[in-house]
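step 3/5: co-fold with coenzyme A
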Amino acid sequence: MAENIKVPKGLAGVITDDTSISKVMPESNSLTYRGYAVQDLCEKCTFEEVAYLIVYGELPLLTELNDFVIKERKYRNISDDLLDVIKKFPKNAHPMDSLRTGVSFIGMEDQRIWDDSFDTNINKYINMLAKIPTIIAANFRHKKGKDFVSPNNNLTFSENFFHMCFDKVPSKEVVKAFDVSLILYAEHSFNASTFTSRVITSTNSDIYSAICGGIGALKGPLHGGANEQVMYMLKEIGEVNNAKHWILDALSNKKKIMGFGHRVYKFGDSRVPTMTKYAKKMASSTGKEKWIQISNILNDTMIEEKNIYPNLDFPAGPAYYMMGFDIEMFTPIFVMSRISGWSAHIIEQAANNRIIRPLSSYVGPAQRKVLSIKDRNTT
Ligand code: COA
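step 4/5: write tokens
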């Protein structure tokens, strides 16, 4: 017999703790990181400045930014041992699984695994921020049978990622669009992967374990994995003329449309207009407007038919595709950025911790007697 308890399925509407990292305001479709509107950060800052802000709590002064950037660049190289492990990854493995294994490996290489003091955790954060793009790019090239391209310490975070993947850096416009996507993806309060990282931290486990857990949660198509699913959907639709029929058919078959809907935002995701603006700019400069045209039809039809709005994954998926990335790299790119939000939450949780251990409402059989195997066979 179910106990007479109203269970908040999916923890919907439940506030589980305080945070000073970001604020999601569905009533005004807005989002702030440490009090700054995310759109303003996209216009006025680089990803490195925002990665600093999220974890330290303040935008950096010039000398602080220089120190941060010098450290990030210094940590970009991965060990030969890790490179050898990457070369052994199955080529058909999803890059999120490869990345989860890579982060676990750098955790094993770190001798300070049980030191969760503020300074050490910040240092481990910069270590992961720097090495995650190198792991993703090395694995990308391994899958294609190409040689590894070493990080270039004269390049910015975003430029260096393109360099390591493609052995060249694209135009300033493309790099800016990528940088903006990282700023928009960097932090979003108590979403599923961040909450996972906080739960792991609450047991006094280490930051690498918490990040590996976050990666596992982000991979799912209801969360970060949606940016990949959006592009598979757009490719399946293929042509602008098919879009209206495809979406109406999917809705009549009660399909979930990837890149739409959100647990918190019900009337639009604050990050979508900024990402859409940069995706459109790229589409016109690369002559790939068809993805934007198909997206527009899906967007309008979802609002007309269901009153459901797109989330950030909807414009981010085609933006990454137009930049030349394989679809399976989209969620790993999300990790390159969200490592900032996760680390800030891990540090916040550790500073004021109580183990996260909710209750459940039991709905299984009432207590009963255990029979021996002989008695079970004869009854
Ligand atoms: N396509 C079609 N219908 C959708 C939808 C979508 N993308 N998102 C929500 N809905 C509908 C649901 O079917 C449900 O309808 P019902 O009440 O008639 O059953 C209603 O809207 C509420 O959706 P629900 O799944 O209960 O909301 P949630 O808060 O539990 O889930 C998401 C939020 C994000 C997981 C959900 O909107 C989703 O699966 N979206 C697609 C995946 C995605 O883009 N994820 C990235 C999130 S940033």
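step 5/5: annotate
The pocket of coenzyme A is lined by residues 10, 222-223, 226, 256-263, 306, 308, 311, 313 (CB under 6 Å).
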